């Protein structure tokens, strides 16, 4: 009986000890949770005080990137034109990297564009840079005048247009100063620049003037074609054949009226205007 009581007392003591241990553990756990909750509450409050993070947006350069992509996927000819336009407008030398930055054409990445530019007659390439290449290497008005004086028979303005940016203004200035003539070609209607060197005055004899004014062209195209053939030139038309075909189809040619001979007046289109001595005695109506 005594041993039983002793066992019960031991068991009670063990229970008390376990209870006190559990109580102390619970107390420690409670004290550690309180700061954590305070930190969480403080963090939540601070995060709620901050402004919300903006939603992600697409790049503002989207349109520019699409534009660049469309340029680089364009045909080779379109890319070459874009580069040549850049070189022509700036008249500066560009490396492939500078071309890529200026007009978005990636010369190094496209072998076809690179080879075409290098072999283009309007482009010069020194192994490093591309530059515009005009037909005549001119820089200013004085060089332009020197070049025109080398062509007494005239030089086409179309061959001078791309020499440098202000070449057309300089041509008009030289014309206004009486240093050159700008005349239209009768056949092609293109402007021709002739030198007008005051050191070489042109004097035409009166006999030559009379001979020039008395020349009368044949009125019939067949006669004109015969004269051309006599002088070793091939006519562009065949009037005899055309008239024969017209007769076969029953088409009668209209009788040509005899043209009245007109004297030269100010309204007459002159093809030899670079010889002003021929036209000093103009018969101007009403004068």
Overall description:
This protein is mainly alpha-helical. Helices cover 48% and strands 6% of the residues. It has helices at 2-49, 62-72, 76-90, 96-103, 111-119, 141-149, 167-176, 206-214, 221-230, 239-248; strands spanning 123-125, 130-132, 155-156, 180-184, 191-195. A 3-stranded antiparallel beta sheet has the order 3-5-4. Strands 1-2 form a two-stranded antiparallel sheet. Strand 1 and strand 2 (130-132) form a beta hairpin. Helix 3 (76-90) packs across helix 5. The longest helix has 48 residues, at 2-49. The relative contact order is 0.05. The model is unreliable at 39-50 (pLDDT under 50).
What are the main properties of this structure?
mainly alpha; elongated; 5 strands; 287 residues; 10 helices
| Helix coverage percent | 40-55%
The main pleated sheet reads as: 3 strands, antiparallel
Q: Using DSSP, what is the number of strands? A: 5
Strand content: 5-15%
Estimate the global geometry from the Cα principal axes.
elongated
Strand ordering within the main sheet: 3-5-4
Rg, rounded, reads 48 Å
Mean pLDDT comes to 78
Instruction: Enumerate how many helices there are, as a single number.
Output: 10
Q: List low-pLDDT spans.
A: 39-50
Secondary-structure element order, N to C: HHHHHEEHEHEEHHH
Question: What oligomeric state do the depicted chains represent?
Answer: single chain
What gap, in angstroms, lies between the N and C termini? 166 Å
Structural class: mainly alpha
């Amino acid at each position: 009986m005594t041993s039983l009581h002793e066992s019960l007392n031991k068991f009670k003591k063990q229970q008390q000890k376990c209870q006190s241990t559990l109580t102390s553990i619970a107390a420690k756990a409670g004290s550690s949770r309180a700061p954590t909750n305070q930190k969480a509450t403080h963090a939540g409050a601070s995060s709620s005080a901050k402004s919300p993070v903006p939603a992600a947006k697409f790049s503002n350069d989207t349109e520019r990137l699409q534009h660049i992509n469309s340029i680089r996927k364009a045909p080779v000819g379109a890319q070459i034109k874009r580069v040549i336009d850049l070189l022509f407008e700036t008249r500066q030398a560009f490396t492939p990297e500078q071309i890529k930055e200026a007009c978005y054409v990636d010369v190094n990445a496209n072998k076809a564009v690179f080879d075409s530019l290098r072999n283009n007659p309007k482009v010069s390439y020194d192994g490093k840079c591309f530059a515009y290449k005009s037909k005549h290497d001119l820089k200013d008005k004085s060089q332009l005048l020197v070049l025109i004086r080398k062509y007494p028979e005239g030089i086409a303005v179309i061959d001078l247009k791309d020499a440098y940016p202000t070449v057309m203004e300089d041509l008009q200035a030289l014309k206004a100063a009486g240093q050159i003539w700008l005349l239209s070609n009768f056949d092609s209607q293109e402007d021709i620049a002739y030198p007008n060197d005051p050191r070489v005055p042109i004097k035409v004899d009166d006999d030559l003037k009379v001979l020039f004014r008395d020349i009368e062209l044949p009125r019939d195209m067949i006669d004109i074609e015969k004269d051309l053939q006599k002088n070793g030139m091939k006519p562009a038309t065949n009037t005899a054949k055309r008239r024969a075909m017209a007769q076969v189809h029953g088409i009668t040619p209209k009788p040509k009226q005899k043209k009245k001979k007109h004297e030269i007046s100010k309204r007459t289109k002159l093809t030899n205007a670079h010889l002003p001595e021929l036209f000093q005695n103009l018969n101007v109506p009403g004068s």
